[in-house]
Write the structure tokens for this entry.
Amino acid sequence: MITVSSLEWHVSHNCNFSCSGCSDFSNYKHAASITNDILKQWYAPWHKRIQPKTVALVGGEPLVNKDIENIIYTAREHWQHSALELVTNGWLLYRYPNLPNVLKETNTTLYVSKHYDSFDYNEKFVNITNELEKQNVKYKIYRNDKTWFQIYKPALLPHEDNDPESSWKNCPTYQDCFQLYDGAIWKCPPIAYINLMSKKYTLDSKWDTYLQYKALQPDCTDSDIVEFFARGAESVCGMCPAKLKLTKKEVEWQN
């Protein structure tokens, strides 16, 4: 078993939020949720080969997937020794009254992402966290309302700073968001889900280089795994900006 830092995956590509410049392209309204059976297929070649210190169920918005409770149980069965996280914006927690019990039974930490800063948003967010407190749910808050960076340029184009090393050093995904997608492991959300985008949209030819990225496949060797997770900057990092600049975040949401 090879110890690696982290692994995460979408349980839904769709999201009830639409955040400008989302690193996972979830603002482009992909309809698909990932079934429990598909996830089992994705886990099968990996869960006895690698031991992530942390695994995370993310999206999109994971709670859009109505089978989320069974998905949590399945994730814990396959990744018994990893710290398990569920990352959500919290808006749909009310749909799952038994979720606190599922989280406790599986020793899963709930991460609630705070995406915006306005009176209406903050009022609802406080109501959500107050309810979690009442239910004695173990949770943490991701502060995405204070720092926001555009992963790609407007009109859906990659950055062209031609400095992958600087892009890597300033990586807005913290250099540690390896994605399990379509059975393979990808370096980060943008490089994984630009492939998802290409299945729905006709992308500018400037994305062609990034669409040729080779993810880590299930038939890889152990040395391939070690090398993959130890990589630093590589050419595909050039899709992101070399120098991060805070931008105004636009958010729309649905309950």
Summary: Residues 119-134 form the longest helix (16 residues). The chain is about 30% helix and 20% strand. The helical segments are 36-43, 68-78, 99-105, 119-134, 164-169, 189-200, 208-211, 222-230.
